[in-house]
Design goal:
alpha/beta; 7 strands
C-alpha cells in the first residue's frame, strides 16, 4: 500500500513538473542581424520583419505573464519609428498570423496594441499600424460579438475622416439657437475645422495662437477661409460661458456626439478642408495650415 502511494505521488509530481515546464515563459531576445546587412534602413527592416521569430507568440503561458509580452511590444513599437512602412506592416501581419488562432492570445495583443499604438501611452502612435489589430479581431470567428464592440467602434472612427477623404457631414448649432446647420453648406475655398474644449489647456493655447495669426485673419477677410470652431459635447452651460472668448471672425458652434464622427483622443483637433470639404490636413498645426494656404494662393 505504501509502495502504491509512493508511486502515485511520484506520478503526480512528474505530471505537475511537466505541466510547469510547458507553462514556462522565456524572456524575449532580439534576432541576430546578419553582418552582411550594413545600411541602417536594411538592418531595421530585417530586425522588424524577424522580430517575432524567436518569441513564442502562441504560448498561452504568456497570458499569465503579460508584462513580458508588453515589454516586447514596446520595443517592437520603438523599431517601427525607424523601419519603413512596408517592413512594419509586414511584421504586424506576421505577428497576427500567429495570434489569430487563439481568441485570448489575439485579444491580448490587440489590447496591448491599443494601449501603445492607439491610446497614446507609448512614444509611437499610429492609426495605420493599429488598424490591422482591429480588423483581425473583427474578422475572427472565435471572438464573440460582445468582445468585438469596442473594436467595432474604433474601426468606425479609424476609417472615417482620413487624409484625402471628404469630411463626414455633420450638424452644428450656434450658441443659444435652435436652428442647425451642416458643414457641407459652408461656401469657401477653405474651411478650418477646429474641434476643441475651452476648458482643455492645450485647446486654450491653440485658440490663442489661431486668434492672433495675421495670416489666417487676412485669409478670412479675403473670403478664402472660414474657421469653424466646434465644441463636440453639445451645448452645455460650461461651454456657453466661454463663447465670448473666441474671435468674432470665427463661426463658434457646438455639435452632439462629436466622438461618433471624429477621433477625439487628442484635443484639439484641426482639419483643413478644401471647397469640396476634402481633408487636406488632419490633426495638423497652425504652421502647416498657414504654409498650405500661402502655397495655394
Amino acid at each position: 500500500m505504501v509502495r502504491k502511494t509512493l508511486l502515485l505521488c511520484i506520478f503526480i509530481c512528474t505530471v505537475v513538473m511537466l505541466g510547469a515546464q510547458e507553462s514556462t515563459v522565456r524572456p524575449y531576445h532580439l534576432p541576430d542581424i546578419p553582418d552582411s546587412l550594413t545600411t541602417p534602413d536594411v538592418r531595421s527592416g530585417y530586425l522588424i520583419e524577424h522580430y517575432w521569430d524567436q518569441f513564442e507568440v502562441e504560448n498561452r503561458a504568456y497570458l499569465n505573464a503579460q508584462e513580458i509580452v508588453e515589454q516586447a511590444f514596446v520595443d517592437f513599437a520603438s523599431i517601427m519609428r525607424i523601419a519603413s512602412r512596408e517592413s512594419t506592416m509586414k511584421a504586424i501581419d506576421t505577428l497576427l498570423d500567429r495570434a489569430v488562432d487563439d481568441e485570448d492570445i489575439l485579444l491580448m495583443y490587440a489590447d496591448i496594441a491599443d494601449k501603445y499604438l492607439y491610446s497614446g501611452e507609448g512614444n509611437f502612435v499610429s492609426e495605420e499600424a493599429y488598424l490591422p489589430f482591429v480588423k483581425a479581431v473583427l474578422d475572427s470567428k472565435k471572438v464573440d460579438k460582445l468582445r468585438k464592440l469596442r473594436y467595432s467602434y474604433q474601426y468606425d472612427v479609424l476609417t472615417k475622416n482620413q487624409l484625402g477623404m471628404v469630411l463626414t457631414d455633420f450638424e452644428y448649432k450656434l450658441p443659444g439657437k435652435e436652428k442647425t446647420y451642416r458643414i457641407k453648406k459652408l461656401k469657401s475655398p477653405f474651411t478650418l475645422l477646429y474641434i476643441n474644449d475651452p476648458e482643455c489647456e492645450d485647446c486654450s493655447l491653440t485658440t490663442l495662437r489661431l486668434s492672433v495669426s495675421q495670416a489666417l485673419l487676412q485669409e478670412i477677410k479675403a473670403g478664402r477661409l472660414i474657421i469653424l470652431s466646434v465644441y463636440p459635447d453639445g451645448e452645455t452651460e460650461e461651454w456657453l460661458t466661454h463663447v465670448a472668448e473666441y474671435p468674432k471672425e470665427w463661426i463658434v458652434a457646438s455639435m452632439e456626439n462629436g466622438d461618433r464622427c471624429f477621433d477625439l483622443r487628442i484635443m484639439p483637433a484641426l482639419y483643413l478642408l478644401d471647397k469640396d470639404k476634402k481633408i487636406i490636413l488632419r490633426n495638423t498645426s497652425l504652421e502647416e495650415v498657414e504654409a498650405v494656404l500661402k502655397d495655394k494662393k
